[in-house]
Fold this protein.
Amino acid sequence: MPTTLLRTQVTHTPAVVRALETARETWSDETDGKLLLHLIEAGERSVREERDRQIEERRAALDRMSAKYAGMFTESLSSIREGWPE
C-alpha cells in the first residue's frame, strides 16, 4: 500500500523469531507484520512504564531526603540578611 511514512524491514533473527512466537501465543490469528506492531506497542508501553516508575522512585527518594532535613533551617532569608550592607 502506498504511503509517505517511513518503512522498516526486520530480519527474522533468532531473537525476532522467539518474539514472534511469544506474540503468537497472545495474538494467534495475526500475521507476522501485525505481531511485530503488537510487540512494538507493548514494548513502548513497557519502556514508558519503567521510565515513569524510575521517575517516581527518584521523586520519592528526594521527598524522603528533604523530609529528613526539613526542620534544620528555620531562619528566613530576610532574617539572615538583616544587618548586611546593601
